[in-house]
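Entry 14: structure prediction run for Putative restriction endonuclease domain-containing protein. Input pasted below.
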Amino acid sequence: MVASAAQRRNATIYTAPDGAFRLARDPDVVRAPDAAFVRWDRMPPKEERSGDLPVAPNLAVEVVSPGGTRREVAAKVALSLRLGVEMVWVADERSRTVTVHRRDREPGVLSAGDVLDGEDVLPGFRWPLSDIFR
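Run finished. Output tokens:
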């Protein structure tokens, strides 16, 4: 569904492990979110796309792993936002929630009955949480 919305919006989707992003150099900071979206206008030229992409994704998606801690996820989110990611979605299957993180506002927690919205990062993308957590 994200890929379909991205194609309609002139974007591309990358997923880990091939979707590693170099968010900073010296020291190097490389992250591979569970899924990510980058607008084509931010993509480096094709010849520079081997290995880690030297650009922050517009959207990063992290799925809370069964062994993961809230502290680990919070650290990933904070670093991603600080280094240029516009929006991070954190999906937690245990609580059946998605937390939406943006640099310019407090996180919002979505649950059953809510709709995940791509906002200005992925305009037109809307996905009911009831469809995500079946």
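Notes: The chain has three helices and ten strands. Will compare against the previous run tomorrow.
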